[in-house]
Design brief:
8 strands, Spore Coat Polysaccharide Biosynthesis Protein SpsA, Chain A, about 45% helix, about 300 residues, single chain, alpha/beta, eight-stranded mixed sheet
């Protein structure tokens, strides 16, 4: 309705996404829940992405397109779409994913579980870069009803369910997360934000709400050199532990959360095994001493 805010805002930050962005936009505009706006922020793309998005904005009044003059980085562009939105509920969308038509409708219904629900997320089904079914196991949604922080955290970490980040947020909570989003590492930052949510707010979900997550063969933000890996490990582990400490949970709950987090961090930090990780740390120390990085 002209002049009024939609019930749902979807923010789509994008950079050089010409290969997949049209399919993502088509999927979002085909949602059963029609009272939505799609806010697209192009991060100074050098391909045809702006032209594709501008065409959708001309054809559908629900689409609002903005383009940054210079590349402001992925985290700031994620914040940008939130700042430009106006809906009571907010959802981030990746430019290379696809959503079931009832995704938004089902997640919106999850907020009926209580006024304090912060996030309603769905089930993740993975596909290859070419859009074919992947052999990677799907990740289930959070519990349908409000559960304890340790239980939701267990499910999050056990599945490495980073796609919960692309669920539906209560707008006020998304705004509260802006400061954290500015500071987290691009790679792994979504999990740090989700851990904060699971520890501090009720998080619910619906396995019928499906997001098809595209697995990319190239991830530009992933650490590459040993020095970058060690720096990321330190930042990520410290950030995850800091979230537990700052959540001020009752001691039994905090202990239970750490019981899930510590094995998860051990798996992440020692993914190459004890010997391989030790060698990587030694190489990082050498690079630091030499003042240069080697691939």
């Amino acid at each position: 309705m002209p002049g009024s805010s939609p019930t749902v805002s979807i923010g789509l930050p994008v950079y050089n996404g010409e290969a997949f962005v049209a399919a993502a936009i088509d999927s979002l505009l085909a949602q059963d829940h029609a009272d939505l706006e799609l806010v697209i922020s192009d991060n100074a793309s050098t391909d045809r992405t702006p032209m594709i998005c501008e065409d959708y904005a001309r054809r559908d009044p629900r689409v609002r397109f903005s383009r940054n003059d210079t590349n402001i980085g992925p985290n700031r562009n994620f914040l940008r779409v939130l700042e430009l939105s106006s809906g009571e509920h907010f959802m981030w969308a990746s430019h290379d994913d696809v959503w079931a038509p009832d995704y938004v409708k089902l997640l919106l219904a999850g907020f009926a579980a209580g006024d304090s629900v912060a996030l309603s997320a769905g089930r993740t089904v993975y596909m290859t870069e070419e859009g074919e079914p992947s052999t990677v196991p799907s990740a289930s949604a959070p519990p349908e009803h409000v559960e304890s922080a340790p239980e939701v955290t267990r499910l999050l970490l056990q599945q490495h369910a980073t796609s919960w980040f692309y669920g539906l947020f209560r707008r006020t909570v998304a705004i509260e997360l802006m400061e954290l989003l500015r500071d987290v590492p691009v790679w792994g930052g979504d999990l740090m934000i989700l851990l904060r949510l699971c520890l501090r707010y009720p998080v619910v979900g619906d396995d019928r709400a499906i997001i098809h997550k595209r697995l990319r063969t190239h991830t530009s933000h992933q650490p590459k050199t040993p020095r970058e890996w060690v720096r990321w490990q330190r930042t990520f582990a410290a950030g995850m532990l800091r979230e537990v400490a700052s959540a001020r949970l009752p001691l039994p709950e905090a202990t239970a959360v750490l019981g899930h987090l510590v094995p998860f961090l051990r798996k992440i930090l020692f993914r190459k095994g004890a010997k391989g990780t030790a060698l990587m740390w030694l190489r990082a120390a050498y690079q630091l001493g030499q003042g240069r990085d080697h691939a």
